[in-house]
Design brief:
This protein is of the alpha+beta class. The protein has two domains: 156 residues, ANL, N-terminal domain (Rossmann fold), CATH 3.40.50; 133 residues, ANL, C-terminal domain (GMP Synthetase, Chain A, domain 3), CATH 3.30.300.30. The protein is 33% helix and 23% strand. The chain has ten helices and 13 strands. Strands 1-2-3-4 form a four-stranded mixed beta sheet, with helices on one face. Strands 5-6-7-8 form a four-stranded antiparallel beta sheet. Helix 3 links the parallel strand 1 and strand 2. Helix 1 crosses helix 3 and helix 5 packs across helix 8. The longest helix is centred in the first third of the chain and has 21 residues. The radius of gyration is 21 Å and the shape is globular. The mean pLDDT is 94. One of its GO terms (cellular component) is endoplasmic reticulum. One of its GO terms (molecular function) is long-chain fatty acid-CoA ligase activity. Pfam families: AMP-binding, AMP-binding_C_3.
Length: 295
């Protein structure tokens, strides 16, 4: 309900019936959630990792607007941001005053402004590589700017997958959408120099018991017992289909495999900030990747 209401606000399509339902949910549920956060909070700021469109709409739907911004160490602080008078969920906002943003031909986000650093200490080569001849800073991120000037980040340039057919694919677009599914913990999209895009998906251990109950499976079952179960495969296929709806046919995930365990910080596959160590995972799970292209 919270997500539907927020989405309706954004499109200007909220009906009286939806407003009444939302009001009821607010009294019964959302008010308690806000109370757990102090009761008076109206705004919050998110940074470091993408919040995701789904969560952004959820929080706005319960009465807490979360603003995302974007910046790097080299830019001193945020160079774009959403704020109460200028917000679009799913974006990182418009450029801050004194900052100019443009998108290069290869999709990289370029920045120009007085707050951007001048050089790396004792590293002239890295400094030269960081800037264009006319002073624009290479952020290393891939993104796009919409007609209203809002910037969206879709991935890292160094993570771009180039398929055997020459198609450039930003894995983060697919991975973030798949991770948004309630049953999914993590996801790695692969396909570099391969004929199609594929994915390795892990299941959320805390959510799995709820899936077992909803599908009349015996309590206490493990993910390993069900990785080939038709009902589980169908549930994850729904997540993949939703992710594929955001990209072209050539960029869509054609095959996926469910891992029988999750990746963790303890096993070295996740950073302390909960980001996937792509290179490590790809090296350690090469056999699983090979299975995706074996037939």
């Amino acid at each position: 309900m919270a997500i539907r209401y927020s989405e309706a606000i954004e499109t200007g399509s909220h009906s009286l019936a939806l407003s009444i339902k939302h009001k009821l949910f607010d009294v019964l549920v959302y008010k308690k959630l806000r109370a757990a956060m102090g009761g008076e909070v109206k705004y919050a700021i998110s940074g470091g990792a993408p919040l995701g469109t789904r969560l952004g709409h959820f929080y706005r739907g319960i009465g807490l607007e979360v603003f995302e911004g974007y910046g790097l160490t080299e830019t001193t602080s945020a160079i774009t941001a959403n704020h109460p008078n200028s917000v679009k969920i799913g974006s990182v906002g418009r450029p801050m005053p004194g900052t100019t943003i443009r998108i290069a031909e290869d999709g990289e986000v370029m920045a120009f402004g007085g707050q951007i650093f001048s050089s790396y200490l004792h590293n002239e080569r890295a400094t030269a590589d960081a800037f264009t001849a006319d002073g624009w800073f290479h952020t290393g991120d891939i993104g796009n700017i919409d007609d209203e000037g809002f910037l969206s980040i879709t991935g890292r340039k160094k993570e771009i997958i180039v398929t055997a057919g020459g198609k450039n694919v930003a894995p983060a677009v697919l991975e973030d959408r798949i991770r948004a599914h309630w049953l999914v913990s993590n996801c790695l999209v692969v396909g570099d120099a391969k004929p199609y895009i594929a994915a390795i998906i892990t299941i959320d251990d805390e959510a799995f018991p709820a899936w077992l109950a909803a599908n009349a499976k015996p309590a206490g079952g493990t993910v390993a017992e069900y990785i080939n179960d038709p009902a589980l495969l169908l549930e994850i296929q729904h997540a993949v289909d939703e992710a594929n709806s955001a990209v072209s046919h050539a960029e869509a995930i054609k095959k996926f495999v469910i891992l029988d365990h999750d990746w963790t910080e303890a096993d070295g596959h996740i950073t302390p900030s909960l980001k996937l160590k792509r290179t490590v995972v790809m090296r350690n799970y090469q056999d699983w990747i090979d299975q995706l292209y074996s037939s």
